[in-house]
Amino acid sequence: MRKTYQELHLAFEKVLLKHKFTPQKANDIATIFSNNSCDGVYSHGLNRFPVFIDYLKKGFIDKDAEPTLTNSFGVIEQWNGNLGPGVLNAQFAMNRAIGLAKENGMACIALKNTNHWMRGGTYGWQAAEAGCIGINFTNTIAIMPPWGAKEPALGNNPLIIAVPRKEGHIVLDMAMSQFSYGKLQEQELKDQQLSYYGGYDQNGELSKDPKAIRETQRTLPAGMWKGSGLALMLDILASILSGGNTTAAISKTQKEMAISQVFICFDAEKFDGKDAIIEEILKFTKSAKPIDKANVRYPGEETLRVRNENLEKGIPVDEKMWEKLISL
User: Fold this and answer.
1) Which UniProt keywords apply (predicted)?
2) Which string of b and e fits 238-259 if b means at least 16 CB within 10 Å?
3) CATH 3.50.30.40 is the classification of domain 178-220
4) What are phi and psi of 80, to 5 degrees?
5) Domain ranges of the chain
6) pLDDT for 109-149, tens place per residue?
7) Which CATH code for domain 2-177+225-273+302-327?
8) What's the predicted TM-score (pTM) here?
9) Helices and strands in the chain, H and E counts
10) Residue 12 in 3-state DSSP?
């Protein structure tokens, strides 16, 4: 199925208003979920929306909460998300980082007691659109085994790095697991195997079966021991800088809530010659001879292509997930 952007946005907004969000918050949240699906990140758009509503019903998300400042020193600020909607808290934190960066050249906003931000890349694109270099990351509940272990003790702790560019922003958005759980769900809904090994099955064998990997929770760290180590370091940084919960503390509740996040910005306009540097790097990268019919792309290039296609043809939606949305 394909739905227009307006149809999807309206359906999200209708459900949010039904659950007593203010019109402004309903519009803002619906926009973020719609943009995620429009950009091809269906796992954190339509497919994730029912989970958001479920968390709201269970009281994990306080729809009326607003972030509050808890500490400030120089270009660094610590904020408490007060368990408000994670997408709005993250949007606020990145906006604050952008504002401070425009004043001082750079800024770091650390956020504790917040909720899932859905697609972390949303806030990288937000920074790039404002002419800023953005770096943001989060910790999560334990859903990935450390390298050499059989059970989860790390979050998949997504890391986003965004650089503004007139011809199309460069945005890296990666979980520390080879495939995010959202991507596993998306492939499972399509009844498709993964393109590469994504984790281990019940027999301890490397597998491309998304359902088997979701059941064991033995996702493969991106870069194996390197991804495992980076996930640990991101948890340490997010927890120290925000003064918030670690993956260990979050996992004790067995609910992904009250997590810690960091948003860093640099005002790209203050750096001379950045455009020439970017083009030199991209030109050199794309000059590499591809394997067979592979397409050498920079991070974010495919997102722009998918966005334009979906705006023109309509956004692909899973029929079961669409019916679930309507039923909410």
Assistant:
1) Oxidoreductase
2) bbebbebbbbeebbeeeebbbb
3) no
4) -105, 120
5) 2-177+225-273+302-327, 178-220
6) 999 999 999 999 999 999 999 999 999 999 999 999 999 99
7) 3.30.1370.60
8) 0.95
9) 12, 11
10) helix
